[in-house]
Amino acid sequence: RFAEELGKVPVLAEDSPGFIVNRVARPYYNEALRIISDRVAKPEQIDRIMKQAGGFKMGPFELQDLIGLDVNLATTESVYTRFNHESRFKPSRIQQRMVQAGSLGRKTGEGFYSYDQ
């Protein structure tokens, strides 16, 4: 009831490493990162198509910038470890390089997009 009072939909799930959303989101982010790594499309193109055709409120790169690339990478690393290094959860080198460079998204003014501070 509490979740419903907050406008959320409760989901009863079996005990498992990682939250359901984190498990679903990791491959989603990783595939988007592979697409830019393979130079198939740019972040803004992927975000636009996911919003227009996929019905998402934000694309994967906008969302990573909002969450913070450091937070997203830490979550990815945690899920990757908890699932015994399954390749579908492997952290992206792009994310790792951006975090090392301090490009963490909105909170630093630079991520996949640039933001005025």
TrEMBL record:
* Stretches assigned to the 3-hydroxyacyl-CoA dehydrogenase C-terminal domain: 18-115
User: Which parts pass through the membrane?
Assistant: none
Sorted keywords for this record are: NAD
Note the InterPro entries from the entry. 3HC_DH_C, 6-PGluconate_DH-like_C_sf, Mito_3-hydroxyacyl-CoA_DH
Q: Name one Pfam family in it.
A: 3HCDH
Q: Does the keyword Methyltransferase apply?
A: no
| GO terms classed as biological process | fatty acid beta-oxidation
> A GO molecular-function term, please?
(3S)-3-hydroxyacyl-CoA dehydrogenase (NAD+) activity
Q: What is this protein called?
A: 3-hydroxybutyryl-CoA dehydrogenase
